[in-house]
Specification:
The protein contains 2 helices and no strands. The protein is an all-alpha fold.
């Protein structure tokens, strides 16, 4: 597993956040409509996300919203 150093300045934080988003972007397709998301579907998708994050060494470097959102700065 890759080691991820914590960034020490604003530029490093931006770069790390951007790269984390890029690594995770597009890997999980949410098939349910937003109004159909409940605790079970939320748990299912967050478990998928955590599995991918662990694989890429970025676990804990992201936040999971309850409702689907785009990756925006």
């Amino acid at each position: 597993m890759m080691s991820v150093d914590k960034p020490t300045d604003e530029g490093g934080r931006f770069q790390q956040g951007f790269l984390t988003g890029e690594k995770l972007s597009g890997y999980i397709v949410i098939n349910e409509l937003t109004k159909e998301i409940n605790e079970d579907t939320y748990k299912e998708y967050t478990e998928k996300l955590e599995k991918i994050a662990n694989k890429h060494g970025v676990s804990g470097l992201y936040k999971v919203p309850y409702w689907p959102v785009g990756f925006v700065w």
